[in-house]
Specification:
The structure is a single chain. By secondary structure, the protein is α+β, with helices and mostly antiparallel strands. The protein is 29% helix and 22% strand. The strands form five sheets. The chain has a six-stranded antiparallel sheet with strand order 10-11-12-13-14-15, covered by helices on one side. Helix 4 runs antiparallel to helix 6 (224-239) and helix 6 packs antiparallel against helix 9.
Amino acid sequence: MNDDAIAYPRDLRGYSIRRCIGVGGYGKVYEASVLRTGELVAIKDLEKRKVFETPGLEARVRAEAQLHSLMNHPAIVKMHTFFEDSLHVYFVLELCPFGDLKKWLSSSVLSSSMRTTATTTTPLLPPPSGSNGTCSDTEARLIVKQVASALAYLHETLRVIHRDIKLSNILISKIQPLTVKLCDFGLAVQATDDDNIAGADRTLCGTPSYISPECLLRKPHGFERDAWALGVVLCALLTRETPFSNAAAVSGGRVDAALEKMKRGVISLPKSLNERGSLAKDLVERLLSYEPERRPSARAVGRHPFITGPTAPITGVAKLPAIRHETRSGSIEITPRGDVVVRLGVGEEMVIGVGGTACTVSGVPIAWNELPPRWASAYSYAAHFIHIVRSRTSRVTIVTDRCKAILMESREDFVV
């Protein structure tokens, strides 16, 4: 339990129930206020009759309460306290008033649970600002950065695998800045050995659209299954589609055929993902690698150039060799004088000057930190490309009778 758990009553009579904000198979979630302080909270109310009728569910509910009580992270919904009476089990949780990402993406109009009611007024939530109801790059990177931070905490500090990462388990707590929190630890489990494996558990659990191939094959699973699900989330934020839904559509709507494809690692990324830039697609593809060990860790996701965005101007290019690299949508080139040229299409060109701060887009001068989203993404990709070239370019070479050591331009890598 959190340190302030003593401030929250462990009796339903200590709360004023305001309205129902969610309905599930085993109970409901209510917005409520603490009578003593007036603080708004969420109360998840599970009916014991339904819980006890389902084999293994009572133990899972109690395990969820025990695990959730250990968690303290800004991107995870806080559990204030947990109690029960003869008929119900109650989780008193931090209130996130703007609903979940699935509802946010599904419609540009507010759901009934987010409208003004007789008892409370919830601030309006603007729809995603990308085209066709998708998230903008800025919104997507903000969301994924926060969820990745929460997962890094779960994986590294608590050794917990969430096992049900999905849009509806990511809640919006603030609009400005866009702030999200991970919730629902009903399927979470702690890893039990050094290989990050959830014991001998091969139970097929989770939501079909988000389940990784190794889980579909009932293999022992580790933290990497959460990375796969995060890739599905990012794909959905950028396209409003998941690889699973796209595979089902390609298979004529047959879910079983789509699942078989997922087991074999045959995923169908939405074509619209190509329009979101190379960096976004690169991160999605890395997270959706068939081999679990090839997926980036949650911490590495936070360092990916799509997530970090252009945080500093590109410098030191003049020391690198001239090189040209073709991409799916254009090319990137380091010129002999140290400029970086990014081409996205016929006649579409950005030239990044030697100092990295002055750019021209199709002949129009513009500062690096004032680039429009499409070209800002291209600038980030250029920075990532420069980092790769720098890491493969020797700076200092030392040769002795016993070894050869090369210090690369990145100042990070020695080859001995």
